[in-house]
Amino acid sequence: MPISYFHAAILGLLQGVSELFPVSSLGHTVIIPKLLGWNIHQNAPYFLTFLVALHLATALVLLAFFWRDWVRIVKGIGRSLRDREIAPDDADAKLGWLLVVGTIPAGILGLTLQDKLRSLFASPQYASIFLALNALVLFGAELLRRRAPVTADDDDERIARTVGWRDTTLVGAAQALALIPGFSRSGASMGGGLLVGLSHKDAARFAFLLATPIIIAAAVLKLPDLAGSQGNGVRGPALVGALCSAVTAFLAVRFLMRYFETNTLLPFAIYCAAAGTAAAIYFAVS
Amino acid sequence: MNRRTLAALAVVLGIALIAIAIVYWVEPAKSLPSFFPGHQAGSTHHHTKHGIASFLVGLAAFAFAWFNTGPKKTRAASS
After folding, report:
1. Which residue in the set A88, A100, A107 is minimally distant from B53, CB to CB?
2. Where do the DSSP E strands lie in chain A?
3. Residues B72, B77, B78, B79: what is their CA dihedral angle, to the nearest 10 degrees?
4. What are the pLDDT digits (tens) for B39-72?
């Protein structure tokens, strides 16, 4: 069996947390097995197929967690298409189209660059260096962030009033950084949200909403591989890993939405700097 | 550039991108025009993902045209 059930469970638990915490799930999935001496071929098609199942589980948890928001957003998009305009007071419609526009650059860059970037940089050495650099992204976002000026009771209304079309394009494109193992998707998009003037809580909310369609789409595109020959020997562990990932993803998103009401990205930046540097030194000397 | 011209350009772009998407889905990499990203002599691989990306951007262009040709109700009411 290419991946044992124990390894699958550990990787699943790790994926659920690290996908949503701004610390790079892909980077951790590349670094941790190597640190623990697990004999897993991380560039092998079966491992990428296994990861797809974990990503799909995480994305489905995000979808369920923000389900009411998604219903409002989809209805808002429908209203705007019917009326052929995005009414200034329709925050759901504006937020929906912000997510659509933000997903386009992330989708294009992901579809066209994913395989090339992963094959180039999917080594533990690179991932640990990029994890340390991820700390700079988080530090930079905190340093350069604009204060949140818009006050509104509704979370989605605040986001819709603060984020512009150019902003969402840049935040969406920033997600592509996560194609490189070690850089965090949520970190890049939360950082982008802070730069355009969102509060930490709203930046996290926008990042999670923005990540959901792209992660689901990427997973669904790769899902046939799990059913095909690349999934041989991996389906059982993938199911266990996905369940573990779903549990920790739910706990992570619930924790983070409370955490960012009063806290910043700095602890995650410090963790990335320390863990990335330590792992890079370990791989260099071992 | 006025809204109608922008909408017309978006429609042309949308049609072109969806046509490109179909080419990606139907033709193997060796048969793609040489200026297309993904063209590779001798390869029978189909660039499905390139096609999906092109199709989605085409749809976005149509959505842009749809909004730009709609009645300006809100702006008319507020002015």
Report:
1. A107
2. none
3. 80
4. 888 888 888 888 988 998 899 999 989 988 877 6
